[in-house]
Design a protein that fits this description.
Blueprint: H1 2-16, H2 18-23, H3 25-29, H4 39-45, H5 47-54, H6 61-69
Keywords: RNA-binding
InterPro entries: La_HTH (IPR006630), WH-like_DNA-bd_sf (IPR036388), WH_DNA-bd_sf (IPR036390)
Domain HTH La-type RNA-binding: 1-81
């Protein structure tokens, strides 16, 4: 699970990074006014995240939230349960 969490965190970080955001109009269209996207959106749209979490028994949105919370560069906004 730790390896999967690290891979998931790396994927979320690179997808959310400035280099990717400059060219990803679709992702920017799904951001709120503060630059956040919903966890359900990430879980179904980010291919690598979907692949990684598919291999984890009982992986759900909470797993993605916990993965984001363990990052030093990503953050969760709003309701976290």
């Amino acid at each position: 699970p730790r390896l999967n969490a690290r891979s998931c965190r790396t994927s979320l970080s690179s997808t959310s990074g400035k280099d990717n955001l400059c060219g990803d109009v679709y992702l920017r269209q799904h951001m709120d006014e503060e630059g956040f996207v919903s966890v359900p959106f990430m879980s179904t749209t980010f291919n690598k995240v979907r692949e990684i979490t598919a291999d984890i028994p009982n992986a759900n949105l909470q797993y993605i939230i916990e993965t984001i919370q363990s990052s030093s560069i990503l953050e969760v906004k709003g309701r976290q349960s």
